[in-house]
Structure formats: C-alpha cells, structure tokens
Specification:
The complex is a heterodimer of chains A (144) and B (585). Chain A has one domain: Rossmann fold. By secondary structure, chain A is α/β, with parallel strands linked by helices. A 5-stranded parallel sheet of chain A has the order 2-1-3-4-5, with helices on both faces. Helix content of chain A is 42%, strand content 18%. In chain A, strand 4, helix 4 and strand 5 form a beta-alpha-beta unit. The longest helix of chain A is centred in the last third of the chain and has 18 residues. In chain B, strands 5-4-3-2-1-9-8-7-6 form a 9-stranded parallel sheet. In chain B, strand 1, helix 4 and strand 2 form a beta-alpha-beta unit. In chain B, helix 15 packs across helix 16 and helix 21 packs parallel to helix 23. The longest helix of chain B is centred in the first third of the chain and has 25 residues. Classes of the chains: A alpha/beta (144), B alpha/beta (585). Chains A and B meet through helix 1 and helix 3 of A and helix 5 and helix 19 of B.
Amino acid sequence: MNKDPSSGAKRKIRILVAKPGLDGHDRGVLVLARAFRDAGMEVIYSGLLPTPEQVAQMAVDEDVDVVALSLLNGAHMTAFPRVKKLLDQKGGKGIVVVGGGIIPNEDKPKLLKLGITGLYGPGTSLEEIIDHVKKKVAERRRST
Amino acid sequence: MLDSGGDPYWSKKAKAFAAARKGTKGMYGDSTIRAIHKGVEQWQKGVLGPWVKRSDPLKEDFETASGIKLKPVYTPEDIQSSDFSDSSFPGVYPYTRGVYPSMYRGRLWTMRMFSGFGTPEDTNKRLKMLLKHGETGLSIAFDMPTLYGYDADHEKAHGEVGRCGVNVSSLRDMEVIFGGIPLDKVSTSMTINAPAAVLTCMYAGVAKRNGISPKVLKGTVQADMLKEYIAQKEWAYPPEAHLRIVRDMMVYCTKNMPEWNYVSISGYHIREAGSSAAQELAFTLADGFGYVELGMQAGLKVDDFAPRLSFFFNSTMDFFEEIAKFRAARRIWAKVLSEKYGAKKARSLLLRFHTQTSGASLTWQQPYNNIVRTTLEALAAVLGGTQSLHTNSYDEAWALPTEKAVEVALRTQQIIAEETGSTNVIDPLGGSYYVEWLTSELEEEAYRYFEKIDAVGGLLNAIKSGYLQREIAENSYRLSRRVEEGKDGIVGVNKYYVKEDAPINTLKINFGAQKKQVDRLRKVRSERDNAKVNAILGKLRRAYENPEANSIYPMMEAVMAYATLGEIVQTGRDVYGGWEEPIIV
C-alpha cells in the first residue's frame, strides 16, 4: 500500500458511498465500502435507490469529505452532474466527487469538466481507487 | 423452507448425504478401492513427492473459485460410495446427466440473446435482426424505470428511460416491440420481476389484439422475487406482497396460460452479486423450494405446477466447478421434489434451465479477451446440459452491446453447436472422477446451506435479517481481495496488463428515447377512457386488499384498458407500501 498522502491531516476521511438512481447493482459499492473502511476511512453507505437530492443532502448533513458515486445503469450522465450541482447549491461545494461504473470513454471528458473524477470501470484495483480518493482529499485540504 | 424453520428434513438430509458419501459399497468394490488407496499413497510418496522437491508448485493453495480445496488428481477412491444410481442415464432419475434422453442429439439448446434498449421501435428492429441471424428465442431487457414500475414521465425515471433496456409504460409500447413478430410461433423470455405480472398481462394483451389465444403463448417471465431481495434488488413492495402476487400468477397461469413459465428461479444475479458457485446453487434451489411451498399453500397440487418452474443459472470462469454445479442442481431438485414434496410426475422433477455467461467476468481492459471468456463459459453451460443460452458480448463492460458484438456472441454459440463435437455425446464429463466428486461436493454444500437457512427460520427470515445478503457480500469481498493480492489472476487486469486508451467503439444510446416515450405515454392517456381506467384500478386495489382474491384478473382488465405500468404498480404501492433492505455494510 502506498504511503497515505493525507497523513498529517487531523481527521479521518469521511466518505459517502451512494448509487443515485434506480440501480440495484450493489456488488461494487459494497466491496468499495468495505475497502474504504479497511483503508482507515469513515464510510457512510446511502442504502439503495436514493435520489440525487437525497444523496446531496446526506453528504452535507454528514459533513463528508468525499461522495463516491456508482452507477451501472447508464444514467450517470444525468445523475452524477445532478448530485454535483445539488451539492454546490446546498453548501457542499468543497466536497470531492468521484464516480465509477459502466462509463463509456466519450462520457468522461464532460464529467471530468464538472470536477467528477475517477470514473473507474469494473476491474479497477481497489488500491488505485483508494489512492485516488486520498489524493483528491489531500489536494482539497491543501487548497482550503 | 419458505416462511418458517425447524423442519427436521433439512438437517437429516444434510447428515445422511454426508454419511452416505463415506460408504465404500460403490461400483468399484471394497478391495479395488483399498488397492487404489494404496496406489495413491505410493504415487504421492514415490512419484509426486520427489518431483515436487525438484520444482516448486506455482501456487500454495489450489482450490475452486468457491474455495473448495483440490487434490492434484482424482481417482475412484474419491467417489467410492458411488454405485452409479446417482449418475444414471440422461432423462432418468435423478437426471444428473441431463433432463432429456437425447439432449442435443435431438434438439440444440435455444439460442436466446437478451436484448432491448431505447424505444420500443429500436428494440423491435434488434429482435428482427436476431431472428434473421438464426436466433431461436426472444429475450427482452427492460430499462430501470420499467423494472421498478415507474412510467417514463415519473421523476425517478429521468435520465434512465431506454438506457439499459427498452422502456415499457403501457400496452401500446408492447404492441410496438412485438410488431410483426408471430407470438404463436416464437417463445419469449422477459427479464422482469417486480412488475412481472403486469408484463405477462401485456404480452397476453398483444396476443389477444392479434387474435392469438394466451393459452398457446410460450415464454417466461423471471418473476423471481426472492432473489430480488437476495441479490438483484429491484422491488416495489415488501416480500410478502410480492410473493402474494407470484402466488396469484401461479394460480392464474396454471389455468389460463398453461405454456407460460411464470417464474424463472434465478441464480444468475445471486452469482453476479458476488456469491460462490456453491452459494448460487444452494440459494437458488432454496428459492425454488420456496415457490413449491407457495404453490402448495395456494392449494395447487405439486404435479400441476412444478413442471412449469424453470431455472436460470450463471456460467462463469471456473470451468469444471460450473459444470459440476449444473449437474448437482438437477440431482438435488429431483431428489427433494420427490422425497420432500411428493412430486410423482417425471416432468415435475426436471430442472430445466437457461444459462447466461457471466457479465461480472468481463473486463473493460482488453475487451476482445471477453470473447474468449464467453466462449469458455458457454461451453461449460453446454457440457452442463443447459436448455437455453445467452452469450454476452465483448463490449458489455463498456456499454450495451453493438450489433456487431452481439453477432459475434451469437456466432460463439453456433460455433460450439456446429463445429466442436460437444453435442454428440450426452454429459461427456460424466464419469470423470474429478467432476463426479465435485458434483457431490457441491451437493453436500447445498444441503448444509439448506440446513442453515432452516436454522435461521426459513427463507423469508434469512432475507429479512440480511443473512443471505451478508453471506454473498462476504464472498464478494473475499474474491476482490484475492484479485487484489494476485492470488486469482485476471488477464489484462492483474496479469499481462497493457495500457490502451480507446480499444473499441461502443453503442451510443439516443437520449431522444425519453422524449419519444413521454410523448407516446401522454397520447395513450389522452386517448383512452379514463373513467373506465379509474374504475378498473379501483377493482385492482380491492383485489390487493383482499388476500383471498386473485389480482391477475383485474390487472388484465387494467392493461387492456391502457392503464399504465406506473399506475398499476402505484396501486400496489398504495396498498402495500415500499421496502427498505436490512443493513448489510
């Protein structure tokens, strides 16, 4: 495991893991939730079938550093930007948003432009995802 | 098994089977087994031992994907109790070797490619393309709003219409999907669960409009709600409410749609959710026993409905374990149906199944490798005796498949059927010491799970407490860690990785589907007799409120009057409420 780039920061990374839509494919999020926890993060799982509004509200209420979104149902181009926009509106502008699932290449630039990063597909190593989250949080903490 | 525990049958069965396997009165006889035992010891000491000293084994632990420990080689000693009665002949109890006497010599499996996307027009075109290329059965994929029972204009449907399947909001959409397709000649499988009864009524409705009697309709709706709570997680109501509607379907179809498979008991999603082969086998069959009990509780005779129950399994990468799983499934079903549920008709004992190759085994890295994965998985299904097969396309870790990718997937099945000789001999791996041993090993593991499910108070309790979901999540995490630690190799992922940017072109789905569907829905609402629709929905509501009523009759009326899917499912939500799953992580 790489050295934790956020070490030295005072609090543990708080991360909300969510599937913002009509999508029951929860294998990936359940594995990730455990992997984030094993990597020392505080993990909150939204449960299934929340709306983007509920996810954004939960993120703000729980004061998380990161929202990790997963969709395998093809709705990422509407649901991910919607969560991001609602976070900005609800005072969660500083929250890091990462995503993954079945995301075609041509969709990635648009999501990246909105500041939604990661965009990992099936078969990505847990370590790569964890490192990405830690890196993004460290950047965010340095800039605020 | 379904709604209570403490049934001594399950613990007795588990113990008796384990004990019987230790017996030595098999077809090889005591003295032969003793001689082989000695031979194995001599081989290990005199041949294998010195060899291993010179070259280290590649791995420390050799095991199946389910985690069953493996020896380097299997001999008659490993199946010493077998007297051949557990294998027997194709089409003969306990059907280990196949459900039909001639298997693929008489008829190939049905090549059934799961498809559906965008608007009903898009899907109609894809179905006709597949029929033209030699597909023999239709299989429809629906989008998420349809699967959860929301109309195209519901706020939860926003952005999801037509994205990962075709959208159906009313009978009008089904009329378009099946336009120009002779419903009395094809068989159609619909992957639909929570609103399965509504889609069955719609399919029958399209037939009626074309002058075809629902009595001759052949096909399947998945309607396996037990596995929804366990794995796929697409529900509308709490478990008891959904089971009541499944019960109504069993009774209605037994009488009115005798050729319709109203439930397809599915291990596919249990496996995709991260279970092992042993868990897929055990949980799926446990669900099957649950439906048998549901039918019997509704007053049906087991032999009147068991022949309509069919199964749906996954085929993934541990080739021999998958084959053994299919063989074990047939054997367990035949034994338990006859021993415990008193089925007498041979048809009741046949575990007929559809197979889909594993979506979760596909990688987005080096996607063309997925053609090879799918080929091996498909071959395992064929060697395991499947009745129908869907082969995934190589681009499905990226998007819904392109026409070209689907064609390669269909051709994969055709190559296995036409060119490999795999269809010439029935159950060609029967008699392999390893496969026979592994078949029994999985059977034993399944009995142990039935005993555990019974011990936690039956299936419904095992679901509501999250026991089954946690078992799967545990295994899924174990598998992920094994890949992460390099214990399980995946080519292109943690072995032989190369960097590629845009390896393939993928299917683009038109965002126009949502608008088109919403427009059509509004037109349907404005053209129908709304007073009549409201009156029928009231009738449906009263049927839902009366546990003794059969809700399918008013549902059929509602569908024919162009009540929408969302309106019909909402009527149920008003009566039963929704469902929150137990906490798993």
